[in-house]
């Protein structure tokens, strides 16, 4: 816990240990060390209440060497399956293997010494026929849709608003636990088949609701994880075999590049980017399984801790969130596995809106003035961040959320223009801000609430739809 930056939890364990073994030297030293580290991260010399210690840590994103569930995402089998699913929700699209510019590290322009842009293999979505401006491209509903709303009632399955009392069309409750209500018979039946049986009348979601505001994003991700566990139990499928989960790329790094030395002095290394806390990654999911009456020891094959981390890797970076209309807090989160096959570009040819379903349609305007619409054979370019943001902010978002600078044409063009305009000063400030995160950020920025312990700005990994 200490090494990955969860100081509050680490301190709590010391306390519990010292209760059992008062005066234990090793525990006392560890506790002292944690307190000093917390003061450093909070940039204070004064006494700090352990309740206020930073507790957001980071761990690796990787395909664990014993994980046999990851499919070959570029195999014919995978593409055939995805294209069968796409035929139902995006009949004019086809999934293909494509080459994408590798997310940048320190380079401003992202170009190698010899002028080529490094690329890597990814899946992408392509038009199989011409798509006109404003034409619908995809309409997807996902069982991985959750909400933390306690203010006004949302459909348990699709999180759309339930009809008002007295409306002609009424919500459809579960026959057994009447507090779970669906917007329609369709959502009711869908929930029973996919996930609700495992959680019926067990208040599983309650574990992740009612939390501190700064925990909102973490708890929405925990709800997503809980939903995946409920789907796994209801359908009797391993969580990593769920079709909604299996083909998502979790921004995994090779085990070797994750295995960098980590010293308690320095906090988690910058290559570790998966948010981690004792509650969200360990006790939360285990509590949920216990409420589902799953014997986690007997079912360790399905519900081991590394499986939770693998699910989080897949959700963090692909989940979208919708905010509450009244207070602006993220309230609904969802993962749309087919929608997220469409890669990001800061000059996208499609736009999305997410109500009951995720809807993608062709934009009627391109940022660089190109003709709108998508021609047969062209790639569908989605947008995962607010494309109105200036290049620097878009790139910071990508660094925090995707793990590297966006290398799309527009970003490279605008970064070059900015570089030319600002001269060397911009280069220095960007490099020191973003890349030498180890030292500079740790010293100066760590206490900022929105900063992760490795100096990467906290972008909670949720795309927000307003
Ligand atoms: Zn619904
Ligand atoms: Zn029920
Ligand atoms: Zn870009």
Descriptive overview:
- This protein is α+β, with helices and mostly antiparallel strands.
- It folds into 3 domains: about 5-55, no CATH class; about 75-140 and about 335-465, Beta Complex (Beta-clip-like), CATH 2.170.270.10; about 190-335, no CATH class.
- It is about 35% helix and about 10% strand.
- It is built from 14 helices and 13 strands.
- It has helices spanning about 5-20, 25-40, 75-90, 185-200, 215-235, 245, 255-260, 280-290, 300-305, 305-315, 390-400, 410-420, 425-435, 435-445, and strands at about 55-60, 95-100, 120-125, 135-140, 145, 170-175, 180, 275, 320-325, 330-335, 350-355, 360, 465.
- It has a 4-stranded mixed sheet, covered by helices on one side. A 3-stranded antiparallel sheet has the order 4-12-11, with no helix packed on it. Strands 1-8 form a two-stranded antiparallel ribbon.
- A hairpin with a 3-residue loop joins strand 11 and strand 12 (about 360).
- Helix 12 packs across helix 13 and helix 13 packs across helix 14 (about 435-445).
- The two termini are about 35 Å apart.
- Mean pLDDT is about 85; it is low at about 425-450 and about 455-460.
- One zinc ion binds near residues 176, 177, 180, 196 and 201.
